[in-house]
Amino acid sequence: MSGHGKHLDHQNPRLLEEEEKAAVTINVSGKKFTTFWTTLAKRPESRLGKLAEDRGYVQDRGEKLFFDRDPAYFGPILNFYRTDILHFPHFLCVPIIRLELQFWEIGEENLAPCCKEIVQTFYKEQKEKKLLEKEFSQFSPVIYNHKEGTCDSYRHRLWVFLNIPSSSRGAKAWMVMYIALLWISFSLLAMNSTPEFRSSNGVNASALPHIFNEKLIMLLTTDDNPIIKVCDIVLNVFFTLEIVVQLFTAPSLCKTLKQFLSVIEVSWLVITWTTDIAFTAKDYLVEKTIEEQREIPAFTTMRVLAYLNVTLRVLRLLRLIPFSRNLQVIILTLKASSKDIGLLVTLLLMGAMIFGPLIFYAEVNGSVSNIDNVLVGCWWALVTMTTVGYGDKYPSAFGGYVIGVVCVVSGMVITGIPISIISNNFNKYQSFAESLKENKRANENEERVSLT
């Protein structure tokens, strides 16, 4: 107890009662609030409660209680002393509420349940927002320090030009051209697999009676179209130079090589030129195949190289991810929904293992059944549960129809639950991406206004 408190002990009860009922006026940024000292003393651990204990010191000095705080937030705090209920209007800013509580030395645990839920929800959303910002930031290019006029400065400028389309109009034009060339490269690949765009090499299909694969026969009896081949080589040279420049100008070569897209780029570079070199021996291998009347084992290696080349060429389209918010949203959605996708695959496999044997045995007595074995039945079950329905396999007996109905309904239930969760994740990332776009547009408008 303060010195004034000891002085009160020697007063008579009437004076003591009057002193306890004494009113105090608190001026908060010009707005005055009046209450009793005894009301403030209910919370001795708070700032106002401590002043109530030392009110004699304040009164003796003739000082008024003035606080340079927002009066809109002080009303609910003063009501807390009166009613023991700490409730703020829901339109007030949550971070300011926390700052005011810290200033007045009142713990957040005293908040009313409705306010506490709003505060917890707000900070949960803020935490989630920071996590989303961190996830989206992984697609942002890394800026490294450099000194102007040095070699690093020119490397940095070139790297910015190649990787940040928004840095200049030239960089944007470069990226548009690069994306167009990627699509052209893919189009050349598609055209090269079509017989109409290939040229005959003089080999007759009758000279390959031991080969029954029509695609392989087409590739062995035709050559790449000369124009398509030249265009493909030119594009390969262009992309090779671009990858080399990317690696040369990278802020950190080791970190760059560890990135998924860089692994794809370098792998494509090695496989592409290895495939082109290997296919120079195609004519010799075709002659050897005709001479020995069997498929040369080297063709297997060439097919593997061609398959890898095609796969990596398609995967290079992932290079578009850092420049497309929509692609980033899809990638992050799949990443966040990995457990749900795993659950979906597990449920589908379980359904296939259940309905595959059932449809096979239900169709045993069918006269025109095309469910030849349990594996075919599992294939039919997967196609049916996903509601794809290729129509290549189907039940023909009454028992099969019943199993088919149950399988379809089960598939709708099985796929519906995880897909709804995946959809929620997509909506979350999509809405955040839209907010980033709006913030960027707002910042650009502010910069434009400040320059004018």
Automatic annotation (TrEMBL):
Any idea where this protein resides? Membrane
Top-rank taxon, per record: Eukaryota
Coiled-coil stretches noted in the UniProt entry, renumbered to this chain: none
Which GO MF terms does the UniProt record name?
voltage-gated potassium channel activity
The BTB domain covers 22-123
Is Ligase there in the keyword field? no
> Per UniProt, what is the membrane topology?
Multi-pass membrane protein
User: What main location does UniProt list?
Assistant: membrane
InterPro entries with a match to the protein in the record: BTB/POZ_dom, Ion_trans_dom, K_chnl_volt-dep_Kv, K_chnl_volt-dep_Kv3, SKP1/BTB/POZ_sf, T1-type_BTB, VG_K_chnl, Volt_channel_dom_sf
- Keyword terms, alphabetized: Ion channel, Ion transport, Membrane, Potassium, Potassium channel, Potassium transport, Transmembrane, Transmembrane helix, Transport, Voltage-gated channel
Q: Which biological process annotations from GO are given for this protein?
A: action potential; protein homooligomerization
Looking up CDD domains in the UniProt record yields: BTB_POZ_Kv
Protein name as catalogued: Potassium voltage-gated channel subfamily B member 1-like
| Species name | Lingula anatina
Gene Ontology annotations for the cellular component aspect, listed alphabetically: voltage-gated potassium channel complex
Q: Which residues cross the membrane?
A: 341-362, 374-391, 398-422
Q: What is the lineage of its organism?
A: Eukaryota, Metazoa, Spiralia, Lophotrochozoa, Brachiopoda
Tell me one Pfam family matched here. Answer: BTB_2
